Amino acid sequence: MHRAVVRSTALVALTLLPAVALVAQARPTERQELAGWVAPSSVRLASGRPGPGYWQQQVDYRIDAALDPASGTLTGRERIRYRNNSPDTLHELWLHVEQNICAPGSITNKLDQPPLVFLSTAFDFSCKGFAGGATITELLVGGKPAGHRVDGTTMRVELASPIEPGAGATIDIGWHFAVPDYGAGRMGRDGTLFELGQWYPRLAVYDDVTGWNHEPYIGAGEFYLEYGRFEVNVTLPAGYVVVGTGVLHNGKEVLSKQQRERLERARTSDTAIAIITAAEATAPAAGGAARTMTWRFTADSVRDFAFAAAPNFRWDASGYDGILIHTFYRPGATRWPEANRMAREAVKHFSEKWYRYPYPHMSSIEGPIEGMEYPMITFDPAGPSREELQWVVAHEIGHQWTPMVVGSNERLYPWMDEGFNTFIDLENAAKYFQGEAYGDTIETQPHRLYRAHAIPGEEKPLIARPVEVQDLFWTGYQKPALMLSVLRDQVLGRERFEAAYRDYLHAWAFKHPTPSDFFRFMRTHTGVDLDWFWHDWVYTTSHPDQVVEAITASDSGSAVVIVNRGEMQLPITLRLTYGDGTTADVTLPVEAWNQGRRFTYRVKDRRVVKAEVDPWGWRAAVPTGTTR
Q1: Residue 211: how many CB atoms within 10 A of its CB?
Q2: Strand, coil or helix: what is 155?
Q3: What is the mean pLDDT of residues 213-229?
Q4: What is the pLDDT of residue 173?
Q5: Whole-number pLDDT of residue 13
Q6: Percent of the chain beyond pLDDT 90?
Q7: CB atoms within 10 A of CB 600
């Protein structure tokens, strides 16, 4: 937005974008017409909190998996214990078989969609020509073979007997698949290093909003799963180091005495301790490929399980408030010795600012995946610069809060996942690099990106599904972060906003909030009607376009006329310069527009000689810098 100077009655526009004809977008008269809006009930209260009738399903997994690095094949068998906590009788089950994204007949391979560009990084949500897919070797329900139909990345399982409310079922599945070199940015291998996410058949969410959530996995939409308990055993050749979601239960079998002693010291250390040193990481794997070793993990109250394995990991660890912070990386990742500090500071900041990290460890792994998060574990690239390494490490860790703890639906609403996370990441990055040019400017990044990405006719609303969005970097990440910044700084004020957002995280921890739950919660907590705000930011691509139209001034008083030419409503930030050279900053609430698009601000007993809307020009900046 251009900085305007108005003297007398001159007309100067103040706008985010070059002058364009903006088409008015009709406001729905019924809130139920809006995507993501759920009528209040005993399950989801009008206050935005979960109600006394709130329910969600319980899904527990026992998985035994073996990975053969030579062939790149993973073979698994799992037992799923499913409990129907809903008031509904279930006549079928739906599962995600996301390994099929690499099958020749998958939607992703049929469409051959171009990669999504995130500034300097292209995210290829495909398998780059790899012909893979999972083979289901066995499927039992209650110990008996069950009919099933696989359709791409989803599988419908027929039930011989329905699952009544309060009852459960046991599902046994055997499967195998070849691990792709690059599997839609979620799994892959690089030589002897393997990173496995979205690697086993998983129960889809059945909720009170849409019933079964069985949207296909195309790549851009990540995942939406139930919470439960995991017991996972991973077998690989001896000499491999495995890191996974959950607590390692057989450390005495798979770790040396020296490694275990170093881990104990790391638990109370503010700085990183080398569990596996650079010299030890480059040593040849002991025992050869013939001998295998099984790593045993358990995890509670998590919605997924991921793991990584390599024979040449360097391993650093430190502690924060009883939480072990791990970083695993190959000797060639020269920037990664600082990554443990980056990870520890992120966990510390998010815990102390928003909600204490609830799990026993946080592990970040360097490898071929450009950035992906799962409970207690993240996959990160080596990092072309110190700033980008800190951003991606902390960003993926930030996902532990949304959506790992506050379990929103990433398949439908990435702004509640990526956007909320980007918002909290900005302050963390500014704190980490405080006093440096990057740290002093990073929080303005979404403002600076506005002009290049909020393009009329091309921009998609935040409520659009991720698979419908070409500029997901803007719609899923940066614009929702900008939205929350504006809400905090221009509408509510920092103290009121932060108290509400913090309580939202606590209220919906380990539950499944919808957009309407968030909207109602913020309204109830802050005491501010924000329907106008959510409508403009989430459901439209409206732009603000405030203009200082005229000043009528005399020594007895002045009148400043401001016009809103855009479709988006925002408070007015006004800087006035008086005849004696002094200035005053005025913030006018959004109610200034209640009576229409023109508002007159009156000043008693002062001559106003200049008026500026948005005097700091935060909306007018051009994009600079890099982030994910």
Answers
A1: 14
A2: strand
A3: 92
A4: 98
A5: 32
A6: 79
A7: 12
Q: Rounded to an integer, what distance in angstroms lies between the CA atom of residue 608 and that of residue 166?
A: 70
> Is the separation of the CB atoms in 273 and 162 below 8 Å?
no
Q: Are strands 154-163 and 168-178 parallel, antiparallel or unpaired?
A: unpaired
Which is more confident, 161 or 131? 161
Q: What percent of the chain clears pLDDT 70, i.e. is strictly above it?
A: 91
Of 602, 584, 583, nearest in space to 592 by CA: 602
Number of C-alpha atoms within 13 angstroms, CB side, residue 531? 8
Structural contact between residues 519 and 461, judged by C-beta atoms closer than 8 angstroms:
no
Strand runs labelled E in 342-456: 361-366, 372-374, 377-380
Mean pLDDT of 213-235: 94
Lowest average pLDDT, out of 19-28, 87-96, 235-244, 602-611, goes to 19-28
Whose structure tokens read 């050749």? Answer: 237
CA dist 333 and 354 (Å) reads: 31
Distance CA 549, CA 10 (A): 7
Peptide bond into 384 cis (omega under 30): no
Structure tokens given for 620? 């007018």
Assess whether pLDDT exceeds 80 at residue 123: no
> How far does Cα 161 stand from its chain's mean position?
38
**DSSP label at residue 165:** T
Average pLDDT, stretch 476-482?
96
Tell me: pLDDT of 17 over 80: no
Beta bridge mates, 139: 173
| pLDDT for residue 486 | 94
> CB atoms < 10 A from the CB of 470, how many?
15
Amino acid type, 597: R
pTM higher than 0.85: yes
Element (H, E) at 612: strand 608-613
DSSP string across 185-246 = TTEEEETTEEEESS-S-EEPEEETTTEEE-----SSS-----BEEEEEEEEEETT-EEEESS
The SS3 assignment for 424 reads helix
* Bridge partners, 485 (sequence order): none
Phi, psi of 49 (to 5 degrees): -100, 155
Res 126: pLDDT: 84
Instruction: Please tell me the predicted confidence (pLDDT) of residue 459.
Output: 94
Helix axes 386-398, 418-432, angle to 10 degrees: 130
What's the length of the chain?
628
3-state secondary structure of 499: helix
Mean pLDDT of the region 450-454: 91
**What domains can you pick out in the chain, each with its CATH number?**
12-19+545-613 (2.60.40), 31-52+437-539 (1.10.390), 58-206+227-405 (2.60.40.1730)
- The residue assigned the tokens 């929103």 is 408
What's the farthest any 2 CA atoms get from each other in the chain?
93
C-alpha–C-alpha distance, residues 44 and 112, integer Å: 40
